[in-house]
Design a protein that fits this description.
The complex is a heterodimer. Chain A is α+β, with helices and mostly antiparallel strands. Chain A folds into 2 domains: 190 residues, no CATH class; 198 residues, no CATH class. Helix content of chain A is 53%, strand content 17%. Chain A has 13 helices and 10 strands. In chain A, strands 2-3-8-5-7-6 form a 6-stranded mixed β-barrel. Chain B has one domain: 3-Layer(aba) Sandwich (Rossmann fold), CATH 3.40.50.300. In chain B, α5 packs across α6. Chain B starts with a strand and ends with a helix. The chains are: A alpha+beta, B alpha/beta. Chains A and B meet through α1, α9 and α10 of A and α2 of B. The structure holds adenosine-5'-triphosphate and magnesium ion. The site of magnesium ion has 3 residues of chain B, from α1.
Chain lengths: 399, 255
């Protein structure tokens, strides 16, 4: 106990005495820690952003897209029955039809074409839809008399941003003049100026409102969400199952989520991380250099200390500790710098535009930075510490 | 009286770069008892520092036996010797060897950083007490380069004594000081050592310094011979022997 405390006291004293020299070396270490931590932290954020936007497109891991293709279109009634059967047989909890449509809406400034995503309530879970205001569809929304709508920010603006608690309605253009209720607002998927308004509508409601799905000649898709571990076996089983029900056609169950394509950032992060590692190495060499100079300059001092009872372990740990204590402090500074950079709102919005809510600074990035700093300190301290131990007292105090 | 260190037929030989052997010490016999004040004189290059390093556990003999507090030092590990040195030996060097950049107080604290228990935890208080004993408590926060040579050596004496060692080894403690300052410092070292009941071995060229000791040896060409303590100029011989007895009695009581 006394031994440990006294070693730290001694190391701290040494740091105070050699502060300018050590400070210079530490700036290098702090900067490289900052670089390393920033790279890892930013990589994390970019990945989160990419994940969020690709989940919105392709669904989260693991999403299977079912489809049956052939020379003629399969009978829609039979197809939806087959899908329902699969849901029951394989215990699928979340599923959704997805089709696209286009329909005119009556806005205060006139009629505007709206891109309609016709989906089921499960779509919200599969694509991790987060609403800014209001809520996503519930199962009961299908029974509403007036179809429910979850609209994009652009749509919401065009409708004059009405208060959602008042159940605001919009009118669909056309002979039927159906009124729909806005129940939720989601951010625009690709915010660019002049983008058309879009909205989500439930499959059942779209039918009643006379919205013709399958615009652009695209047939509707059916998506199911399954557990990662079962994705592969289910894929095979469901394909075979569908194939059997639709002989002469081609049944498919493909993964559409981002995780199925592998991690697109692994290479980039590896490269940037490698560069940061090199920078770190440079910092370590700088630190080593300074420690070597400091030790040579202090040979006499070490001799004096040994004549007053410092054991060789004590000298070793003392020199090492100095370096470690110093780089640990530099590491903390570096990590703080990295957090300041990565958590900067402007930078956040630039590197992860897909995110509406930014994740906290990743702990593993901070730990990595700090760990690297301490490792550098230990490495840069070990060599001069060995030199210090080899100092012969009688030679050191001779003049 | 308790024997602190004993040397029996100790030699120290070093191999020179041209492969010749240099016999620095040739068969030294010496016993140091608690409370002894011993002077070693001799020409430069005679091997005095080499001998002192052996006594202070900084070096090991080539042949012969050294016992420290009854323990043959050859049997001790490096660490055991370091600890024993920290506990029982205090060094005073010719060039003071204060740690640059640390205050006088921090210098005196240094040996206590290697102490266990209360020695470490009460280091500030103990160091302050010791600085007070050498009359420098008012200058505790001053850096060594702002102190005069005499003051620096007084700090070094405080540092050597702060762990209350049984043995103080001083290698030409007045060598870098003018005669008058040297005398004051030496008198202080002698007094403080006497007060703490520590044995004191002083290497010196100065007969005034040697005159303070109660035993004197000459080391010449690696051979140690006992000589009479030179009389201090202008001091009657009777006075030396009187103080000798007084110190012997107090040291005996302390041991
Ligand atoms: N490690 C060593 N290698 C080679 N020669 C050495 C070594 N140690 C001491 N010597 C030589 O041994 C002799 C005695 O050295 P030492 O330092 O003990 O003398 P000294 O009596 O203390 O002299 P001074 O009064 O000048 O301090 C010197 O000639 C010195 O050069
Ligand atoms: Mg000498």
């Amino acid at each position: 106990m006394t031994g440990l405390v006294s070693t730290i006291v001694e190391a701290w004293q040494e740091l105070r005495i050699n502060k300018t020299r050590i400070l210079l070396a530490l700036i290098g270490v702090a900067l490289s820690v900052a670089a390393l931590t920033t790279v890892v932290g930013m990589g994390n954020l970019v990945r989160e952003g990419y994940k969020a936007s690709s989940e919105r497109n392709g669904g989260r891991s693991a999403t299977l897209n079912l489809g049956v293709y052939g020379p003629t279109m399969p009978d829609p009634e039979k197809l939806s029955q087959a899908y329902r059967g699969i849901q029951e047989r394989y215990g699928i909890k979340y599923s959704t039809n997805v089709s696209q449509a286009q329909h005119g809406f009556q806005f205060p400034n006139g009629v505007q074409d709206v891109q309609l995503h016709v989906v089921d309530p499960g779509y919200g879970v599969i694509h991790r839809i987060e609403v800014d205001h209001g809520s996503w569809f519930a199962d009961s929304d299908e029974q509403r008399f007036a179809p429910a709508l979850v609209v994009s920010e652009t749509f919401y603006n065009a409708a004059g941003r009405p208060n959602l608690t008042t159940d605001p309605v919009v009118t669909l253009a056309g002979a039927q003049k159906t009124t729909a209720v806005i129940i939720g607002v989601v951010p625009d998927q690709y915010p660019y100026p002049g983008m058309p308004p879009s909205a989500y509508m439930l499959t059942g409601a779209a039918e009643k409102a006379g919205v013709t799905a399958g615009a652009y000649g695209m047939s509707s898709q059916f998506e199911i969400w399954v557990q990662d571990a079962q994705a592969e076996s289910l894929q095979a089983a469901i394909t075979a199952d569908l194939q059997q029900q639709f002989p002469g056609m081609e049944a498919q169950a493909n993964r559409g989520d981002y995780a199925s394509h592998g991690d697109p950032f692994a290479m980039v992060q590896l490269a940037v991380g490698g560069i940061a590692g090199l920078v770190m190495l440079l910092g370590a060499v700088g630190m080593l250099n300074i420690s070597m100079v400091t030790v040579r300059y202090r040979v006499r001092e070490i001799g004096i200390r040994r004549s007053f009872g410092a054991t060789s372990q004590r000298v070793f740990v003392g020199v090492m500790m100095e370096s470690v204590v110093a780089t640990a402090v530099a590491g903390v500074v570096g990590v703080m710098l990295a957090v300041a950079v990565v958590k900067n709102p402007w930078i956040e919005s630039k590197i992860a535009p897909g995110l509406t809510e930014f994740p906290p600074f990743p702990l593993e990035a901070a730990m990595l930075g700090l760990g690297a700093a301490i490792l550098v300190g230990a490495l840069a301290g070990a060599i001069p510490a060995l030199v210090a131990v080899r100092v012969k007292v009688i030679d050191a105090i001779r003049f | 009286m308790e024997e602190l260190v004993s040397l029996t037929a100790v030699t120290r030989t070093v191999r020179l770069p041209d492969d010749a052997e240099l016999h620095i010490l040739k068969g030294i016999d010496l016993a140091v008892h608690a409370g002894d004040h011993t002077a070693i004189i001799g020409r430069s290059g005679g091997g005095k520092s080499t001998l002192l390093n052996l006594i202070g556990l900084l070096d090991l003999p080539s042949t012969g036996e050294i016992r420290f507090l009854g323990e043959p030092v050859n049997h001790l590990s490096n660490n055991a010797r370091a600890r024993l040195r920290g506990e029982s030996v205090g060094f005073v060097f010719q060039q003071f060897n204060l740690l640059p950049g640390r205050s006088a107080l921090d210098n005196v604290i240094t040996p206590l950083l290697y102490a266990k228990g209360s020695g470490f935890w009460r280091r500030r208080e103990l160091a302050m007490e010791m600085l007070d004993r050498v009359g420098l408590s008012a200058r505790a926060d001053v850096l060594p380069n702002m102190l005069s040579g005499g003051e620096q050596q007084r700090v070094a004496i405080a540092r050597a004594l702060v762990r209350k060692p049984r043995l103080i080894l001083a290698d030409e403690p007045t060598g870098a000081l003018d005669v008058e300052t040297g005398q004051t410092v030496m008198a202080l070292l002698d007094t403080v050592a006497t007060e703490s009941g520590s044995a004191l071995i002083t290497i010196t060229h100065d007969s005034n310094v040697a005159a303070l000791a109660r035993a004197c040896y000459r080391l010449e060409a690696g051979v140690l011979t006992a000589v009479d303590v030179p009389l201090r100029p202008g001091t009657p011989g009777a006075e030396t022997s009187a103080s000798d007895e007084a110190v012997g009695a107090s040291a005996g009581a302390g041991a």
